[in-house]
């Protein structure tokens, strides 16, 4: 029987049961009006680890285009443009000041790694051009609608630099393959009241579909029975089936009609298995991973970070092992261990790094950072376009400037 040994809160309780296969994942409802509560505990979640297909380059055309700035230059020189934003505008009904919705929460389309592949006079006349492009349509936050937005044209920008206007676009607004992850199955599951209610609704043919709906974040259960947040991963789907589980008598396998929002890559399973037993005792366990899994390692370090602990006082010196800082993800892993020891966390993107430098994440500034083997990062963190992150590369010099701005004195060795 599953028994929490402490009052239920978002973290801190200990979960255990009398089966050989231990509980590994807790589904936690933090969205309902009735307060936070456990939804289910399970041995595994089929669908929690899944690889997304790589983004495809598409052929797009700006129709009736009047290019300017970098776009005009790309027609006669280096055809690579970088990123481009297509923002629908309606000249017949211009927006009043303050009415414009800020991207990405509108119908703007975001194109990454764009190259101009051709141009020709447009049938619209007036010296306008039809400009062919190759690029990746960004679908990470909100992809372009399948139907063309209402309006009379599009405004083109590149990192807020105007690129001109066009009357229409071809190839952007269309239906694309669904990126939703595969439907989830909770394997070896012990339902808590919210899921028991959903299962009861499943057994009643006339029950409202909304009663089978589950909204929950996913938390990892450690070997000692305590839980940690699995960062931003969650389940937002409806129950579709249930069967007895082979994991143990009384446990269930519960299927859903949807997948995990933002699942982990398949390679991250070994990272979470590694952290299951506890925090690493030695630094550098992340060094053998590629960029994607180094990011996942830093995410696991964030989940296991000791929140609420006081910062070490200002003026201290920390040592960063730079031998394996061959990418920006490696830098985040390395500075996490420099400040907070093996498996330590001190940011896993630029915004998070800045947040950590402001305090309450292990070290108070001003501080000194001795960056050993800094030549490795200087060689690898170079200017350019980062096709892993789909944006400008974060450079060695940029990181040094950011650290200095936040009162970190860096000594390069």
UniProtKB/TrEMBL annotation:
<dbReference type="Pfam" id="PF01337">
    <property type="entry name" value="Barstar"/>
</dbReference>
<protein>
    <recommendedName>
        <fullName>Barstar (barnase inhibitor) domain-containing protein</fullName>
    </recommendedName>
</protein>
<dbReference type="InterPro" id="IPR035905">
    <property type="entry name" value="Barstar-like_sf"/>
</dbReference>
<feature type="domain" description="Barstar (barnase inhibitor)">
    <location>
        <begin position="317"/>
        <end position="381"/>
    </location>
</feature>
<dbReference type="InterPro" id="IPR000468">
    <property type="entry name" value="Barstar"/>
</dbReference>
<comment type="similarity">
    <text>Belongs to the barstar family.</text>
</comment>
């Amino acid at each position: 029987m599953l028994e929490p040994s402490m009052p239920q809160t978002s973290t801190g309780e200990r979960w255990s049961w009398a089966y050989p296969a231990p509980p590994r994942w807790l589904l936690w409802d933090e969205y309902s009006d009735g307060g936070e509560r456990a939804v289910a505990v399970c041995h595994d979640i089929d669908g929690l680890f899944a690889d997304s297909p790589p983004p495809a380059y598409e052929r797009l055309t700006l129709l009736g285009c009047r290019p300017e700035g970098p776009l005009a230059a790309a027609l006669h020189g280096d055809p690579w443009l970088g990123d481009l934003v297509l923002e629908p505008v309606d000249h017949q009904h211009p927006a009043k000041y303050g009415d414009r919705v800020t991207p990405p929460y509108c119908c703007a389309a975001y194109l990454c790694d764009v190259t101009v592949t051709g141009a020709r006079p447009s049938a619209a006349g007036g010296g306008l051009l039809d400009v062919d492009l190759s690029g990746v349509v960004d679908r990470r936050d909100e992809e372009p609608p399948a139907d063309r937005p209402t309006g009379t044209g599009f405004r083109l920008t590149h990192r807020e630099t105007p690129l001109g206007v066009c009357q229409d676009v071809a190839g952007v607004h269309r239906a694309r393959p669904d990126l939703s992850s595969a439907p989830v199955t909770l394997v070896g599951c012990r339902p808590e009241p919210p899921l028991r209610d959903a299962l009861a609704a499943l057994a009643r043919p006339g029950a409202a579909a909304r009663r089978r709906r589950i909204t929950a974040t996913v938390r990892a259960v450690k070997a000692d029975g305590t839980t940690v947040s699995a960062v931003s991963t969650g389940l937002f789907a409806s129950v579709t089936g249930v069967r007895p589980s082979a994991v143990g008598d009384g446990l269930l396998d519960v299927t859903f009609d949807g997948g995990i929002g933002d699942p982990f890559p398949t390679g991250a399973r070994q990272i979470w298995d590694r952290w299951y037993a506890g925090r690493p005792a030695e630094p550098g366990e992340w060094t053998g991973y590629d960029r994607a899994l180094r990011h996942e390692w830093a995410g696991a370090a964030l989940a296991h970070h000791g929140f609420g602990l006081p910062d070490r006082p200002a003026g201290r010196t920390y040592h960063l092992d730079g031998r394996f800082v061959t990418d920006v993800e490696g830098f985040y892993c390395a500075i996490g261990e420099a400040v907070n020891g093996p498996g330590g966390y001190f940011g896993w993107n630029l915004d998070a790094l800045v947040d950590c430098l402001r305090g309450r994440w292990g070290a108070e500034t001003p501080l000194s950072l001795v960056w050993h083997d800094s030549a490795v990062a200087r060689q690898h963190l170079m200017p350019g376009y980062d096709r892993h992150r789909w944006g400008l590369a974060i450079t060695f010099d940029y990181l040094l400037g950011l650290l200095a701005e936040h009162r970190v004195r860096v000594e390069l060795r």
